[in-house]
Specification:
Chain lengths: 238, 238
DNA sequence: TTTGGGGTAACTGTATACAAATCCACGACC
DNA sequence: GGTCGTGGATTTGTATACAGTTACCCCAAA
């Protein structure tokens, strides 16, 4: 990957966005470990831009929770946010609440769109079941399918505000999911059943049930993940 | 008010924050009308700082939804976000979901804290009832009490992430509430009863009920507000 | 009177120089 | 040997100059 050229080639007003996306990618995929210090000048040099667009990207990452300021001093020293069990639980509950609202709206969608969505979700979940059933499941594929399942509801049914919020928070859950997906692969079958509940509720237009089903799915996921984290240990704390 | 001196006196690393807070205050209180253009140079001059901290403040306001970019062009021209019925409904539902999660946690609080919170909420709601019962209610006082009622749950029971999210979204609901509070004063009694439901659920430690009660409260508030907006007309659109 | 085009003014994006504040290491003194 | 202080290096915060783009205004022509 050659970030230098990407950022340079970017048109004027996209530079902060490009830097933001690249950094986020690095954080989510763990290439920037929790606790790492982010130095403006280093980043600027690395992407071949000045500190100005870098500042924009960092501020956004900070506001969205990907990076935090070192606790000690008044002058802010941004570091990659740590991954802890408590944070995971809170984060998953929040994402669950937001996606639950989407599901609520999805269940109230007018008829042609709703059936289409249900069909789509059913297909994805079936694929997910098949992928999980194989002897050595492809973790990346599992994650992608699960991701798409949740994403579709939001894309179709959420309003602009909800979409914005979701897109800024969801990737942070991705940090945890990507790290622990190998440990979580064994817990797929309850998740599959929960997805079926969601689909059924949306199909019959039962908004309250759809909402509750999504909340359950995420709350259970938080519990499963929390247990795994406690077993394996936190990252970025000691 | 003399913003010049405020921003100047602020210590180095607080300047963007001060500008942010002042601008947000102006927007929330309607002194900056929906659709107004925000020009970096003007703001910088007004607060007697350079464009750099102003940019930080604007970026934050944009990300939180207080300002939007003029629809047409690639270069961003920030304007104060319009107020519409649809947006109000979506916004209130989101805030409701977040506060519902807080209430859920509040109902699971360990014992000394929970009783204290319940007592506090009961007092506030009683004051609210008294204030609403007087012949010519003080709208500002009504709003403050209602605000405090909702705020306490979050302060006591929410985790750091939830608090952060809430503090960035809630003031946007405030924009609507402050504008329409005079029209909404007549609808206080259902809201009072809904508050009582919340208090009762937390008191008996019924987390699910507390969550549902908060969601109902906000969803109904969204409906009441939506009707008022449709009657009175949107702001910032025509 | 309205519409189209060109030119100018205004505003934002970027880069960079400078100032202030913190951290780190080294050394002196107890 | 340990601890505290001081000086330099590092890094962020701020201001400002410059470049590129957009919008607006004015004037001419239909």
């Amino acid at each position: 990957m050659t970030p230098r050229r990407l950022a340079r080639a970017a048109t004027r007003s996209d530079r902060p966005k490009v830097v933001y996306e690249q950094l986020r990618e690095l954080i989510v995929h763990g290439r920037l470990a929790p606790g790492s210090r982010l130095v403006e000048t280093d980043i600027a040099e690395r992407f071949a831009v000045s500190r100005t667009p870098v500042r924009g990207a960092l501020q956004r990452l900070r506001q969205e929770g990907y990076i935090v300021d070192s606790p000690s001093m008044r002058q802010s020293r941004p570091t990659v946010a740590p991954l802890t069990g408590d944070d995971a639980r809170e984060l998953f509950d929040i994402v669950g609440q937001l996606e639950a609202l989407s599901a609520y709206n999805a269940a109230e969608l007018p008829e042609p769109a709703r059936t289409a969505l249900v069909a789509e979700l059913a297909t994805i979940n079936a694929d997910l079941g098949k992928a999980a059933g194989t002897p050595r499941p492809d973790h990346n594929r599992l994650w992608n399918l699960d991701e798409r399942f949740h994403e579709r509801c939001v894309e179709v049914a959420a309003g602009p505000r909800l979409k914005l919020l979701h897109s800024s928070i969801k990737p942070q859950a991705e940090r945890y999911e990507r790290l622990y997906v190998s440990y979580l692969a064994g817990y797929m079958s309850p998740s599959l059943a929960e997805h079926d509940d969601i689909i059924a509720a949306i199909r019959r237009g039962d908004a309250a049930a759809a909402k509750a089903a999504v909340e359950r799915n995420w709350h259970n996921a938080a519990e499963r993940l929390g247990q795994v984290i406690e077993r394996v240990g936190d990252w970025g704390r000691w």
